[in-house]
Amino acid sequence: MRFDELRNEQKSLGKLIPKATPEERAQLLAKAEQLKADVKAAEAEQNEADEAAKQLLLKLGNIVHEDVPVGGEEDFTVLETHGTIRDFGAEGFEPKDHLELGEALGAIDVERGAKVSGSRFYYLTGVGALLELALVNAAIAQATEAGFIPMLTPALVRPRAMEGTGFLGQAAENVYHLEKDDYYLVGTSEVPLAAYHMDEIIDVDKLPLRYAGFSPCFRREAGTYGKDTRGIFRVHQFDKVEMFSYVAPEDAEAEHKRLLEWEKQWLTSLELPFQVIDVATGDLGASASRKFDCEAWIPTQGKYRELTSASNCDGFQARRLQIRYREDKKTAPLSTLNGTLCAVPRTIVAILENHQQADGSVRVPPVLRPYLGGREVLEPIAK
RNA sequence: GGAGGCGUCGCCUAGUCCGGUCUAUGGCGCCGCACUGCUAAUGCGGUUUGGGGUUUACGCCCCAUCGAGGGUUCAAAUCCCUCCGCCUCCGCCA
Questions:
Q1: A251 in a domain, yes or no?
Q2: Contact by Cβ (8 Å): A104, A381
Q3: pLDDT tens digit string along A90-121?
């Protein structure tokens, strides 16, 4: 530590100067002048090295878990399937898609959404609005029951929070930025929940820390032209309940499984058929070492579509945000994990389509009924 | 949007005008010890945080740290600049 030594020398010298006789003083000052230059040079050298080390660290993507399937978006592994896909043919009617159902229920208005804000915007109206509130309440209730602390988070964040969570890398083009104020609109409350403890050191016996965030989410959806253009499956703004955990590194993998279990519990309570996939390497992004998605069956598409996603970020975000834990006087980056509990519009899509009945009404799964005034069925409204 | 005030080691606080004796004052709280049936009170000692080094260990040593970052200077809590946050007043407005 050359800088430390020089600095120490400079300090001791500084104490002598005020006490020195005039003759000594001139000599000391000359020496101090030289020291100043040395200290400055040593400091610059140290800063440079620190910065280089930091840049190298930031370039590191996460190390992918060894069990993750190698390949692109289509190369995922199906881990499990749950629930039963309905046979509408046997029931004697053709399923309607969520938009047709939603419009008949007076629940979704995409036309006026487009008029006011453009494509991929929508209004949730009447029972649609109530359905969102019911979903959010039920999701928060489940999370709270599981020990999560409910959180309402900022939707606008500073660059550091965005960068620290890994969203200014390859995902940057999907992020809204307010140039005039240099704010970013979050695409998920994962961002403010991760940054919540930035620059903090957390005692190991406070872990795990679990938060359930609810916030609007904004996504530019760049590069998705022509994809999911109908209805509210893919939109620029939506609300989401997100689970977020801070854990000790050795507990990260187990926590990842727990997050997945909570997501399965949620989708099961909504009585939706779904499968769990192990997302392939090419679709992981920089921050996750492994990602499990739960995909619900969408009848009119004839396939499973992503509803929730649970990621293990290990120390990736913690390193960038300087979030450490302390154990036996040692500090080290902890691990962060996140998992969707309820992304509202997609969940509404799945509920409308899977629980629709021949007359265009939609059965309300029991878990939501307490939050919908006991309502068991949503009925189409007269035009 | 305009004007002003403020930010000190858990909490409160001295220090900033006028740079060095600040190795940052004092109180509260907390921890340890002593003393007194217990409690309380009293006395003595300790108590910022982070990084690094060293030790079998208790510990010891070095650097940084007075909201953050730059600058001036031989030397910065103190002077200058930028930024962040909090408070007060005015204006505007859900």
A1: yes
A2: yes
A3: 999 999 999 999 999 999 999 999 999 999 99
